[in-house]
C-alpha cells in the first residue's frame, strides 16, 4: 500500500468553532433545508444565493466565508508528517466534502499533497461511493491498496470501508497525531 487518502477538516486542518455557517445562513434565508447541494455544486455562494432568490445576502455570506478561510490552520504535526510520508514514497491525496469557496484555500495550505478530490468539483459527497471511486481513479489505485484517514466515522471510516478502502479514524480531540495513523500502525 503506497496510497494515503486524507480528510481535510478535523484531520489536517483544525476545526474552528463557527459563529455562523454561511451555508446554513443561506438555506435559512431561502427557507430550504439542503446541505448536500452546496457541497456538490462547483459554484460560488453568490450564484447559489441568486438561484434561491436571496442574492442580496451574497456580500454578507462572502464576508462570513472570508472570515472562516482566514482562520484555517494546519495542525502542528501535519506538514512534517506529510513530508515524511512523501519521502517514504507514499502518494497522498485529500478527499473532502467542501463547498466551492474553500477549495483553493485548502490547496494553498497543503502544497505537499499530490491530489485533491473535493465533493463540489465531482458532484458527489462522502459517504457516496462515487467520491471514493473517483478518488481511486484519480490516484490510479485499487481500493484495497489505499488507506483513508479521517475524523468522521460515517464519511471517513464506514464509507471507505464499504467501498473496499482500508480506513483509520483519527481523534484530534484526544491529542492523537497524524503520525499515529501511519499505515504500519493501523
Automatic annotation (TrEMBL):
Q: Name the NCBIfam families on file.
A: HAD-SF-IA-v1
InterPro entries, from UniProt? HAD-like_hydrolase_domain, HAD-like_sf, HAD-SF_hydro_IA, HAD_sf
- Name this polypeptide is given: Haloacid dehalogenase
Q: Which SUPFAM superfamilies match?
A: HAD-like (SSF56784)
| Domain of life, per lineage | Bacteria
- Kindly give the Pfam families that the UniProt entry links to this protein: Hydrolase (PF00702)
Amino acid at each position: 500500500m503506497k496510497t494515503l487518502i486524507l480528510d481535510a477538516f478535523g484531520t489536517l486542518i483544525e476545526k474552528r468553532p463557527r459563529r455562523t455557517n454561511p451555508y446554513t445562513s443561506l438555506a435559512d434565508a431561502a427557507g430550504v433545508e439542503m446541505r448536500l447541494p452546496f457541497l456538490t455544486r462547483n459554484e460560488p455562494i453568490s450564484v447559489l444565493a441568486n438561484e434561491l432568490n436571496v442574492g442580496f445576502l451574497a456580500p454578507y455570506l462572502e464576508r462570513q466565508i472570508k472570515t472562516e478561510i482566514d482562520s484555517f490552520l494546519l495542525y502542528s504535526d501535519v506538514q512534517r508528517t506529510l513530508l515524511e510520508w512523501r519521502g517514504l514514497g507514499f502518494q497522498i491525496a485529500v478527499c473532502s466534502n467542501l463547498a466551492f469557496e474553500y477549495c483553493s484555500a485548502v490547496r494553498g495550505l497543503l502544497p505537499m499533497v499530490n491530489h485533491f478530490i473535493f465533493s463540489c468539483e465531482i458532484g458527489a459527497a462522502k459517504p457516496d461511493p462515487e467520491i471514493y471511486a473517483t478518488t481511486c481513479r484519480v490516484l490510479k489505485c485499487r481500493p484495497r491498496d489505499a488507506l483513508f484517514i479521517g475524523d468522521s466515522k460515517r464519511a471517513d471510516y464506514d464509507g471507505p470501508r464499504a467501498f473496499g478502502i482500508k480506513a483509520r479514524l483519527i481523534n484530534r480531540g484526544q491529542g492523537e497525531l497524524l503520525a499515529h495513523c501511519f499505515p504500519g500502525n493501523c
